């Protein structure tokens, strides 16, 4: 009985915290912070089985990718897997990770700049309210609704 109660509480808690409520960018992608002072952002979208990461300024306008670099990892913290990152005309391209895995990005404005780490769980479950994938859920978290 005690085990069933613990399992039930764990399930309810995980469902309550699964709802993301994230900031979305001008292309409908998830916004990640690429600076300490909110002057540089990354917008993550998925197209053709790849993550596309556009670099945006403080006004959410595209920034040309020249000197910037990005590294990407996924998998178990004890044994992370490095992902191949390529540049294109609009930003960076990375293979999509498996649903439920974390994507960890390290962005650098220049080669000698301090790296900024951004991460998110690629949660592909559908939000019941907005019908988007949870990693792109535009609903406000329960705490903000009250």
Report on this model:
With 146 residues, the chain is mostly beta strands. The chain is 14% helix and 37% strand. It has two helices and nine strands, in the order αβββββββββα. It has helices at 2-18, 142-145; strands at residues 30-33, 40-47, 50-57, 69-76, 79-83, 86-88, 91-95, 102-108, 116-121. Strands 1-2-3-7-6 form a five-stranded antiparallel beta sheet, with no helix packed on it. Strands 5-4-8-9 form a four-stranded antiparallel beta sheet, with no helix packed on it. The radius of gyration is 17 Å and the shape is globular. The protein starts with a helix and ends with a helix. The relative contact order is 0.19. Mean pLDDT is 85; it is low at 3-18.
Beta fraction: 35-45%
Query: Which strand order does the major sheet show?
Result: 1-2-3-7-6
Task: Choose one word for the global shape.
Answer: globular
What level of helicity do the residues show? Answer: 10-25%
Poorly predicted runs of 5 or more residues: 3-18
Largest sheet: 5 strands, antiparallel
Number of helices: 2
Structural class: mainly beta
Number of DSSP strand runs: 9
Q: Give the rounded overall mean pLDDT.
A: 85
- Radius of gyration (CA) equals 17 Å
């Amino acid at each position: 009985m005690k085990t069933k109660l613990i399992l039930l509480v764990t399930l309810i808690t995980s469902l309550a915290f699964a709802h993301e409520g994230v900031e979305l960018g001008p292309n409908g992608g998830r916004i990640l912070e690429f600076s300490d002072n909110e002057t540089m952002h990354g917008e993550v979208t998925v197209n053709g089985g790849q993550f596309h990461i556009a670099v945006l300024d403080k006004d959410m306008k595209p920034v040309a990718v020249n000197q910037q670099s990005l590294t990407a990892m996924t998998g178990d913290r004890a044994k992370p897997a490095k992902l191949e990152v390529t540049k294109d005309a609009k930003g960076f391209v990375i293979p999509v990770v498996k649903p439920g895995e974390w994507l960890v990005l390290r962005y650098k404005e220049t080669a000698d700049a301090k790296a900024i780490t951004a991460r998110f769980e690629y949660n592909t479950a559908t939000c019941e309210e907005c019908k988007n994938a949870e990693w792109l859920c535009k609903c406000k978290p329960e705490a903000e609704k009250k």
